[in-house]
Write a structure and sequence with these properties.
single chain; 259 residues; binds xylulose-1,5-bisphosphate; 6 strands; alpha/beta; binds magnesium ion; six-stranded parallel beta sheet
Amino acid sequence: MSVLQALLWDVDGTLAETERDGHRVAFNLAFESMGLPWCWDEARYGELLRVAGGRERLLHDMRSRSDAPSSNREREHLTEALHVRKNRFYAQLVHDPGIPLRAGVRELMQECREHGVHMAIATTTSRENVEALLGAHFGLSWQQWFAAVVCGDHVAHKKPDPEVYARTLQALAIAADQAVAIEDSPAGVAAATALGIPVIATRSFFFSRECFDGALASGPGLHTRKHWLPPVTDDTDIDLIMLSDVLAWHAQAGAQAAH
Ligand code: XBP
Ligand code: MG
């Protein structure tokens, strides 16, 4: 059985509720700043999250709008302008008012550092958004926390395509069964499992009802030891998912693979 070498973190929805409180809000500010009467409420944004990537999401939405430019070229221009503005607004939002890390994230990261388990970022969001969010939480030296950072602008195909995870494994020079990914979306779980990376699925606001077949474990979030499948076994006073739980799930995956 392989020893766990690295924890691979998804960003949006997994580290923080950045889709609901960051990207969605920033897209709406971008629409307003360009005089567009468009607004993505939570219900609409939840549907649009099936499309990975901010630019791709904008283009997809424009296809169903009668008030969007009619030519592809114009739509692409508008998409570029909106996306630049959206990312600027996003960077402002993560600093003020700020978007908190989901409970349990920092604690698990800290434990990984203390126990020599490497960490990586494997996300389909743009690098500048990762810098903004992690810079806000960990300061200018945020990158020291991660042995690899692979973002949407480093790949040709976004999740559910496994490319972002393939590049992350390559950068870490480890095999799929030496890693565990932490994800919140069906597309993210599909991307990691396609390569045989075991995945812990933490439900986020927009994917609160997913069943995450194929995940190593799934539950409400790292903030609690309750309602996880498979259940968390060890009793502890701290009601958080801990590195020992991740190691136990990883060992179960190894045992299942050996049968
Ligand atoms: C989430 C995404 C991204 C963001 C927007 O990625 O799908 O598209 O919504 O980011 P993950 P960009 O959960 O893998 O972090 O506008 O930079 O594309
Ligand atoms: Mg996500």
